[in-house]
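Predicting holo structure, zinc ion bound.
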Amino acid sequence: MHEPERFKSPEYLAVLDEATSSAACHFSASALNAMNEAAEKSYPLEACGLLIGTINNGWQVDEARQIENLNRERAADRFQLDPAGYQSVDRELRGTGREIIGVFHSHPDCPAKPSPTDLESAWEGFAYPIISICNGEVDNILCWTLNKNGNRFKSLSVKHSQ
Ligand SMILES: [Zn+2]
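Done. C-alpha cells:
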C-alpha cells in the first residue's frame, strides 16, 4: 500500500511503541462487518464509532456502532466523535454489564497506523482499531492501545470469530 511521507516522519514514528504486547482484541463477525461497512460507506471521508462489549482476558467486542464524525473541515484525515452519540450509547449500556471499550476509525488511502492526533485524543484502557481503506475497499485492520506510560500506542493482535 502507498504510505504517505508523513507516516515516516519523526512525529509519526514517536507515536508507536515497538514493544510487542500479548494482549488481543477479539471481534465478533458482526462487529467486524459493521466497522468495514462504516469505512466503506464514509469513504473518502473518515468513519468513526464505538466498540461495545466487555474487558475480560483482553477486549471482547461484540458490537461496533458508527457515530457521526463531527470534523467536517478535515473529515478525510481527522475525526471527532459526536459526544451526544457517545453519551446516548453510554446511557443505554448502563446496568447491562456491557460497556464502551474502544473507538474505531478509518484511514482513507492511508496505513492503519495511528497519527499524532490519534494519540492526543486517546484514552487509557480503550482499544483503537484503525481500518485502512484504499480506493473504497478495506485493506486491513490494525488495533492499538495506549502503553503503560500513556505516551505511545502499542499494537494489539486482532482476533475474530469466523
Ligand atoms: Zn487516525
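The longest helix spans residues 29-42.
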